[in-house]
Amino acid sequence: MRDYNREFETLTAGLEGRPGLLLHVCCAPCASSVLERVYPFFDVTLYYCNPNIQPREEYDRRAGELPKLLRAAGMEDVALVIADYDEAAFLAAARGSEGEPEGGARCTRCFALRLGASVSYAAAHGFSYVGTTLTVSPHKNAPLINDIGERLAAGSGVQWLPSDFKKKDGYLRSIRLCQAYGIYRQSWCGCGFSRTDP
Ligand code: SF4
Asked: Cβ distance 22 to 121 under 8 Å?
């Protein structure tokens, strides 16, 4: 089995300069500890592209935490791109898998939708690397996410950044950073299908 954290460390140890990285971010909590891992090695641009987040107000709320995170982390040189909200794209991708449990086919399609958009943006804007914060979550399948990202990036001219950011206590670190920075931490993944709280 591949060790994506080791692959990340090997890749970054061999970098020269700080190449451009488009980092897909699902939310500020997940971005917090991931930024600490990537910022020393890359010229980072955050790409908030999550048409899966429902409702629209929640999409905007999570987006609004990102500038706050960058200020608190002292990383205001990190650029931030907020994609247009396209709920219809997510609903089309999820069609037929709405009732799947978290971690099932709906999530695989959701990852592909967001990572596909990220690869396209990175290719169109001349980034050297594209990656995602999604692997910091213990609820997300890092090998699956890396496999999707790699396949989508193949032939695009952009290199996929392998990661398993939950390693090295990445998830725990994200919780502590959010507490220290006063960052809003949501209680569900994103789509209405995954929401179980009242
Ligand atoms: S549970 Fe999360 S990853 Fe799965 S489809 Fe919903 S928003 Fe996407």
From this structure: yes
Pairing of strands 129-132, 79-82: unpaired
- How many Å apart are CA 119 and CA 137, to the nearest integer? 21
Residue ranges of domains in the chain, CATH in brackets:
4-186 (3.40.50.620)
Q: Is the CB of 118 under 6 A from ligand 1?
A: no
Q: What does pTM read for this prediction?
A: 0.97
- Ligand 1 near 162 CB (within 6 A): no
Ligand 1 contacts CB of residue 106 (under 6 A): yes
Q: Is the pLDDT of residue 118 over 90?
A: yes
**Which residue puts its alpha carbon closest to atom 4 of ligand 1?**
107
H/E segment holding residue 103: none
